Amino acid sequence: MAALTCPNHGPQPAGGAFCPICMEFLVPESAAPDPGVGQVCPVPGCGNQLDADGRCPVHDLGGMATEAGTWAGEPPPRLPTDRPAGPGPGGAPATTRDAPPDTTAYRLEFPFGPVGVGRAEVRLGRADDLGDIAARLAAHHNVSRQHALLWVEHGELYVQDLGSTNGTYVNDRRLDPHTRQRLFDGDELRLAGTVRARVRRTGGNR
Asked: Per the confidence metrics, is the pTM higher than 0.85?
């Protein structure tokens, strides 16, 4: 069998169909692009070509490469067995607009920086009307314009895929579209094959 290689990260160990760094499909070495194309961003799940100054178009690599290396070395979180799933009442998720003042706050630790989730729901995607988060995701063309929705309900964090093309994943399990999934502290949330975030609970009452 011909050796397999990642278009972004070069030859990979045998036994897999996806690059463990960026989740791109592996291809035979004969079909891979010229390895002299340029270096890629070391942040896990990025895969963007670095410019002439060695900078990623999405990430300022100042201290990010060290942080990314530490993150990549973390063991995968264990999956709790008591995760509720299924649509909310009436098929629509309850948001935190009517939540009590002590609603628990959460933080999603993306490679490009943290995104907080508190009393207001948060939409993730590349649509222009999503503001700063859209700018941060602009280079990830496999992320849909309206990709996923997060909200806090009764102090717990939930995510719902909004019918995205390439899926929303929790701990590498793809979610059913328009079905809410509870998130726990330490979970990994992934948009499509490249954008990963660690879920952190930051405060509030349990």
From this structure: no
